[in-house]
Amino acid sequence: MARKTTTSSEVKNRWKAANYKTYQINLRYDADQDLIDFVERFKEKNDGMGVSDIFRAGIDVLMEAEKNAAGE
Which pLDDT tens digit goes with each residue over 45-65? Predict the structure, then answer.
């Protein structure tokens, strides 16, 4: 019998659950349109940068600001 060459969704989901922390956000068109527009513009300008990368960069800025505020 030939070896199975695909990985089941169950196996992939277990690996993701063990290796990632997932956050889900919902942005409202009426209240968060400026954020939605920014993310979409940023993705277009920075080809290859995903939404996770954008949020990661924003969190890095906030963490740095917190670190600087604590050092004052």
Answer: 998 789 999 999 999 999 999
* 37 domain-assigned: yes
| Cβ-Cβ contacts under 8 Å for 61 (sequence gap 6 or more) | none
Question: How many structural domains compose the chain?
Answer: 1
| Residue closest to 52 by CA, chosen among 1, 16, 6 | 16
Query: Residue 30 is part of which domain span?
Result: 18-70
CA 1 to chain centre: 41
1 part of a folded domain = no
Helices (H) and strands (E) in the chain, counts: 3, 0
How many angstroms separate the CA atoms of 66 and 27, rounded?
25
Look at the pTM and tell me if it is higher than 0.85.
no
